[in-house]
Model the fold of this input.
Amino acid sequence: MDIKLVFDKEKIDRELIKTLDEIGIINPTEIQAKAIPYLIEKKDIIAQSNTGTGKTLAFGIPIVQNIKEKTREIEALVVVPTRELSQQVTKDLKEIATYKQLRVTKICGGESPNIQRAALKRGPSIVVATPGRLIDFIERRVINLDWIKFLVIDEADTMLEMGFIDDIEFIIRSIKNKHQTALFSATFPKPIIELTKKYQNQAKRIIINQDNKIAEDKLEQYYLCSSEKNKKELLVELINDIEPKKTIIFCRTKKDSYHIHKLIKNMGVRSVVINGDMSQNQRDRSMNSFKQTRTKIIVATDLLSRGIHVENVDYIINYNVPKNRDSYFHRIGRTARIGNTGKAITIIAGRETREFHELKRKISSLIKNFEGNVTYENQIPLEEAKSNSRNRGEGYGGGRSRSFSRNRGEGYGGGRSRSFSRNRGE
Done:
């Protein structure tokens, strides 16, 4: 197939082109240019692309194009891993579906199931859902999937990481109608590949930015090093120096996110926190405050690192070294999105030096020592920190086992079991 720019009158409805133009979208991104022709022709795809590359419109445009005007049966189902992502995808799809008067409904945990039941009775054409609440509605026969023609599994690797892979299979098997399937994932671990072989029909494979390579002219990557006891002081020095306008600070645990949020508030800097302990309303208030620039900094766990679009983020600060390369790229992908520029700074202390060296070995991007406008009193050379860590006999991860962290409910997904997540509708 001749893959070309597809925002033209021969490929896309004129009214849809007009709608895209009104919201400031003129030319397709790479993932859109490659995915849209296949999806419009009703072919299955499996697509690998970094965050911030315009994946939602890559499947959203073909969905809206192919659904008839004023359709009141659910013909498209988009499954996403988190409530925040479901909100973002729903918002984006609503923007481009208005010209056809298509209804888009969100089904997720953390909100009233009665309100969502009522929304389904009003006849949406497109449903965006998280696995837990969707399965609950399927089992209770609240939702009818008999008319599904288009299924999207977004952030499939996140679904796997959160323990939702069996739930995804259940959802796919619940759709009896012949349908088209589009699967999007930043990485392709073996279970995801097996899923595509089992449920897709000669899927076209699309790879954008293989190995998570970042455009280094758009996103500059840095590190800063300190001793363990001076790590917070170094963060304070950094914030005072860079004077962030819209910054995300990622922490590995919910406990750290609360501590760092308190530290920043005590500095007199407007900030909010978001993590898995918070209710949906609390998380929404934090996100809205940050998006509307009422606050300059949001402190978050990896909950926020997948699929959340916030424009004009100037800095990503990793207060803890990410647990793996995928987590690293998902975090820093919150800035320098779709052509914008940004900076990512990882703070390293004590036992994390070995983790950082392992991370650098696994990625191809250049990560440089950050040089601020002033000298940081609490900064030390990376080799000195590595030497200090070796002298203390600290191993990778400080001896903490991965399972211990999971049992404490720390990190992305909180380590919840599949059945517990389903009951919560998350």
In short: The two ends are 39 Å apart (CA to CA). The mean pLDDT is 84.
